[in-house]
Amino acid sequence: MRLKVRRAVAMVVAFSFVATWLIINPESYEQIFTRIENTGEEFGASDDANFGIDGTPLAIDVLERLEVKGRAPKTGYSREEFYNGWPTVDGCSLRQRIIKREFGDSAVLDGCNVIAGEFDEPYTGEYRVFEDKKEISKIQIDHVVALSDAWQKGAQYLPRETRYEIATDPLNLLAVDGPANEQKSDSDAATWLPSNKKFRCQYVARQVSVKYKYALWVTEAEKEAISRVLGGCPNEPAVGIKLDR
Questions:
Q1: Contact assessment for residue 226 and residue 61, using Cβ atoms and an 8 Å cutoff
Q2: SS3 sequence of 83-115
């Protein structure tokens, strides 16, 4: 009973924090509604950083800024250490907003719910058309940096409010094929990459960006795997972060 009470209090505090944050920073969730675009205006300057032709920092440069360490123990991990269900943003579930973002203009809405649409599924590369809500329910929202992986690479030492941000940050969320997501599980780039090779550069660039944003580290094997991918696309930009000077 005491554990349930503590969890309930923790969730109230977390949701209060997020609500206050959104009121103060209403632009923070703009990226929910449109695919994240890389523009130089989003990033701070850095004297020793490599930048793309549009001024955007490169993922391979951001990778070099990540700390390299071994995994911490998984002891104590549970999804509830990050969040307990999708939050509601402006009256709509975050899950539905991510699906709407990926479907773009093709999304057909019934209130907050996406009931039809189409998109290029990123992990398999297949073009998917959904004609009803039941089919859409099979879509899963993946944490690009899996929460268990985040836990073992620094998140367990972060405040609960920061872990909540990691779990609900649109930067770390993608609408994907359910079986592909289940196959990935809590793997990092050293042990799993999307079968869609055309998406791998974007995938690892987003992982690097999330880890940089929340000061998470990578293992040596993970860094090597990401480096191999980015070696084939050295101009792949980072996403949604600012580089420290």
A1: no
A2: CCCCCEECCEEHHHHHHHHHHHHHCEEECCEEE
The first and second tokens of residue 115, run together, are 């009931």
Go through the chain and tell me how many residues it has: 245
| Domain map (residue ranges) of the chain | 2-89+139-231
**Assigned token pair, 186:** 């809590």
Taking only the tens place, the pLDDT of each residue in 124-179 is 999 999 999 999 999 999 999 999 999 999 999 999 999 999 999 999 999 999 99
Phi, psi of 130 (to 5 degrees): -115, 125
Cβ-based neighbours of 49, under 8 Å, separated by 6 or more: 57, 58, 61, 243
**Parallel/antiparallel/unpaired status of strands 92-93 and 173-176:** unpaired
Q: Report the distance separating Cα 84 and Cα 80, nearest Å.
A: 5
pTM of the predicted model as reported, rounded to 2 decimal places: 0.81
Strand partners, 119: 128
